[in-house]
């Protein structure tokens, strides 16, 4: 039986190209790893910390490196693990099964292309896509009106935090958050297909 392969992807902030590579689960668990861009001017690094792994990735959106620690179980087995830029709300790194990572990277490249187009025409606004964000917020209101937003802690009280390309639902009781992407028509379609939204909830 072939060992499970994990696909890793990010977009180089220097040359703008998608960098995608495959590593076996053994390679990722065995020690530190580096995924350089072919242009030689950026790299993603993974550092093993016992049962966790620290991922550092350069960000195309805010020109900083983002570092996040994730459990090795998620790193090695989750369908799709995405790390986001806190400033933009957009994913900066995707790790998981090949098909899921390629899908996520295609969405990310579409968002990057739109950003570049808006910059060229001086059209960049408050949101990555004003129309998508407006419709996502309208759909959220409809779901909330039906009582479809709850938290795993049992509370139905929450706040809404609107970002550049996503919306966070934050539980008023436990502080847990559910991030809903709002960057593309696919994000809107995915939300429209849902009748209820459950914030994961935090254990007391």
Write the layout of secondary structure elements.
Elements lengths: L4 E7 L6 E7 H6 L2 E4 L6 E7 L2 E7 L6 E7 H6 L2 E5 L6 E6 L1 H23 L9 H16 L3 E3 L6 E5 L3 E6 L5 E5 L3 H8 L4 E3 L5
Parallel strand pairs: 9-13
Antiparallel strand pairs: 1-2, 1-8, 3-4, 4-5, 5-6, 7-8, 10-11, 11-12
Helix pairs in contact: 4-5
**How much helix is in the residues?**
25-40%
Rg on CA atoms, Å:
18 Å
Query: Could you describe the largest sheet, including whether it forms a barrel?
Result: 4 strands, antiparallel
The backbone outline, from C-alpha atoms, is globular
Number of helices: 5
Write down how many β-strands occur, each being a DSSP E stretch of 2 or more residues: 13
Order of helices and strands: EEHEEEEHEEHHEEEEHE
Termini separation (Å)? Answer: 42 Å
Average of the residue pLDDT scores? 82
Low-confidence stretches: none
The domain tally reads: 2
Strand order of the largest sheet: 2-1-8-7
Strand content range: 35-45%
Structural class: alpha+beta
């Amino acid at each position: 039986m072939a060992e499970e392969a994990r696909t890793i992807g990010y977009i180089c902030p220097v040359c703008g190209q998608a960098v995608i590579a495959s590593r076996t689960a053994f390679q990722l668990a065995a020690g530190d790893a580096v995924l350089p861009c072919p242009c030689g001017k950026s790299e993603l690094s993974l550092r093993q910390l016992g049962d966790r792994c620290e991922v550092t990735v350069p960000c195309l959106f805010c020109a900083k490196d983002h570092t996040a620690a994730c459990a090795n179980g998620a790193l090695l087995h989750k369908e799709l693990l995405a790390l986001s830029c806190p400033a933009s709300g957009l994913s900066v790194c995707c790790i998981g099964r090949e098909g899921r990572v390629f899908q996520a990277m295609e969405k990310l490249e579409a968002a990057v292309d739109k950003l570049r187009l808006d910059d060229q025409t001086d059209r960049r606004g408050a949101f990555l896509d004003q129309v998508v964000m407006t419709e996502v917020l309208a759909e959220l209101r409809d779901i909330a009106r039906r009582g479809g937003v709850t938290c795993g802690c049992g509370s139905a009280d929450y706040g809404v935090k609107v970002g550049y390309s996503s919306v966070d639902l934050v539980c008023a009781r436990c502080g847990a958050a559910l991030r809903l992407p709002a960057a593309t028509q696919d994000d809107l379609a995915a939300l429209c297909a849902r009748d209820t939204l459950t914030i994961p909830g935090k254990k007391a």
